[in-house]
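Annex B. Sample input.
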Amino acid sequence: MTIRRGVGLTPMETRRDVIVKAAVLAEELGYEAFAVPEGWGLDSTPILTEIALRTSRIRLASAVLSVWGRSPATLAMTAATLQEICAGRYVLGLGASTKALVEGFHDTPFEHPAAKLCDVVTQVRALLAGEPAQLRRLPGAHPLRLGQRPAAEVPIWVAALGPRTTEVAAQVGDGWIPALMARDHLAASADRLHRLRAAVAPQRPALTVAAGPITVADENPETARAIAAACTAWYLTAMGGVYARSVSNQGFATQVDAIVAANPRPSPRRATIPPAAWPVLDQLAAYGTGDEVGEQLKAWDQAADSVTILLPPGLPWPTIEATLVAAAPPTGPDTARPDPRSARVLAEET
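Annex B, continued. Sample output.
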């Protein structure tokens, strides 16, 4: 089996130079994709442009852009432009985001998110294929087409967790990006999505499932666990409830309640997971020494098409380097893991 690995970041990571350096190193280490998120901090599209100009092979993904933050026309222009800059390596990730972000940052009512997601994906895909804009508010206006070469080949991956948005991914997506999916539940969830895809869109190719754990490698396993726990607890307690509900619905309601109770004022770096809830950490994260992380990721390789490790925000560069080396895909059954020293030389050069 070919091992496919990708790297994803969190919206809380705002060190542009570190993001670019990590992407360059990820390409050197053989990762197939590097995903830059967008929330309330950095605009991901110029960062992806910078990465594209510094790399030549690795796929670059917006994972994800909110369907509330840009119009379908702007999303199509962005995707077509990045596809040209990336020389065909771009993946457009779209998601419905969260109520807290949509209303508290974009000043837009968070209404019917699944319908909004489906509508925007459909419109963007049509524009990228060279079709005229689908006018809804001003149907009497003259509909325009994208004023550059069509880019119908841009894959659109859909971020979805709930049943309605997951159905949208099956209907209109090229890939599925589920965040904070429990390791032992991912394979069954992916299987259900593939069966749904076959039922509702049999003419479309199979979905790519890109998912993976929050990942930290450190020579001190306790340090790695503390960092992974802080990031996991932050997502479960400070993201408007969407991840807490999702993980609870996967069978971990008791553990999620314990994590919420232990973090009345959560912080991305100071949040904690009480010992009673450690089983959920082991389902959502891979942590420990480099060898331990590599071993833990083998179970994820059986569940996802491309295991996308998620780097917690604010990691010092040596920890990022160690984590990327530990989780890098092997190039063959007898191939040793990359030498961290060569990665360090690359980092210094870039």
